[in-house]
Specification:
388 residues; mainly alpha; binds coenzyme A
């Protein structure tokens, strides 16, 4: 039976709304962050992202998301000391990462490393998730990725330096030398921008897993898997692929037209919630202008302008704008990261939001268990195998 609102029910099933992709369904209450889609605003714990970007450090933002308030100087120093102390990886985790083929995707290495950490670390990750575990896991994300990044090149992992901040330490562990300020500063702003974003797919995944009473590493392993998909966090390397395929400003129109004629989606545009420009895209555009080469910035800008015009012509009622991924590509490549490290670097930031959501979920938990609409038959009779 199909109800007037498009709902379907079988026999005793109640008529329930079933929006495609759960669009518009409220899956949790959160005080962490909110996306105001119509206005193009993102708020963390009451602060507009423009209040924080370029002013608050990544560690301050992490404290804000976990604790609800910006830290005092001594609270921040305490958090930085804890992050620094928790950065080293257990040797067995490095051995698990070493066993992966160099051809593995870094997101697969991260997912494997987080999962291995859950099995190996005997101080954490067995009971109800807590803040110390959130800090420990956040501290270890850069090291897991950097270990894989180096091992796949035949290089040994580099031990972290506790006094460095997260952005510095990540670049140090990746490249084995003290990073330039012109590299770690834009990375730090990038990390503050990506730390949380309402009820996105990977956050929902983490909360669902946490709601079953499972442990923090399990919840975050699932979230990494959800972030990997190109409709969520997997787009920025594809933006880089697109810009490299376009190659020069004079090719932009022909390339975009051909892609849209083939029915492809243009990476870095469109969003489930924003019906205006993603506020993070605006901040990243400014950073890309500073950090990337003039040629690459010009190619990005020209591609963005033409893509927006074409999308508005072809889908006039859809309100498609630039999303966070588009200029992430220019910023992260200017920082020295190859394309396949873009989504993992997103995860280095988002682990803060994921763990904060898990802590919020377990503080007031109810098992997340939705329904499915049953569309299969119900009246079949068993036939013995020799008669089938
Ligand atoms: N390029 C071309 N067309 C696009 C588009 C894009 N980037 N994004 C959306 N559209 C079109 C869809 O084809 C669809 O058209 P139709 O209704 O004629 O079929 C319409 O706009 C709405 O798309 P819909 O699939 O309902 O949006 P969604 O909310 O499910 O998807 C995204 C949102 C982000 C998955 C989608 O915009 C997308 O695939 N973008 C490219 C990938 C990307 O940048 N991801 C990073 C997100 S931060």
């Amino acid at each position: 039976m199909t109800g007037s609102n498009g709902s379907t029910a079988v026999s005793d099933q109640p008529v329930l709304p079933r929006p495609e992709g759960l669009e518009g369904v409220v899956a949790a209450s959160t005080a962490l962050s909110h996306v105001f889609g119509e206005e193009g605003r993102l708020v963390y714990r009451g602060y507009d992202i423009h209040e924080l970007a370029g002013k608050a450090s990544f560690e301050e933002v992490a404290y804000l998301l976990w604790m609800g308030e910006l830290p005092t100087a001594s609270e921040l120093a305490d958090l930085r000391a804890k992050l620094g102390a928790e950065r080293p990886l257990p040797d067995q985790v490095i051995e698990v990462i070493r066993a992966l083929p160099a051809s593995a995707a870094p997101m697969d290495a991260l997912r494997t490393g987080v999962s291995a950490l859950g099995a190996i670390d005997d101080r954490h990750f067995d009971e109800t998730p807590d803040l110390d575990e959130a800090i420990a896991l956040t501290a270890k994300f850069p090291g897991i990725l950097a270990a894989f990044f180096r091992l796949r090149q035949g290089l040994e992992p580099v031990a972290p330096i506790a006094e460095m901040n997260t952005a510095q330490s990540y670049l140090y562990q990746l490249f084995g030398r003290e990073p330039d300020e012109k590299h770690w500063r834009p990375l730090e702003v990038y990390l503050t921008l990506l730390a949380d974003h309402g009820m996105n797919a990977s956050t929902f995944t983490a909360r669902v897993i946490a709601s079953t009473g499972s442990d923090l590493c399990s919840a975050i392993t699932g979230a990494v898997g959800a972030l990997k998909g190109p409709l969520h966090g997997g787009a920025p390397s594809k933006v880089l692929d697109m810009l490299e395929a376009i190659g020069a400003a004079e090719n932009v129109d022909a390339w975009l037209t051909a892609a849209l004629d083939r029915g492809e989606r243009l990476m870095g545009f469109g969003h489930r919630v924003y019906r205006a420009e993603d506020p993070r895209a605006e901040i990243l555009r400014g950073m890309a202008r500073e950090a990337s080469t003039p040629e690459f910035f010009e190619l990005s800008r020209r591609t963005e302008e033409r893509a927006l015009t074409m999308l508005h012509e072809r889908k006039p009622d859809r309100r498609l704008y630039t999303n966070v991924e588009f200029y992430s590509a220019a910023v992260l490549s200017a920082v020295g990261l190859p394309g396949d490290m873009f989504t993992p670097t997103f995860a280095v930031s988002r682990v803060v939001g994921w763990t904060a959501h898990v802590l919020e979920q377990v503080a007031n938990n109810r098992l997340i268990r939705p329904q499915s609409e049953f569309v299969g038959p119900t009246d079949k009779h068993f036939v013995a195998i020799e008669r089938r």
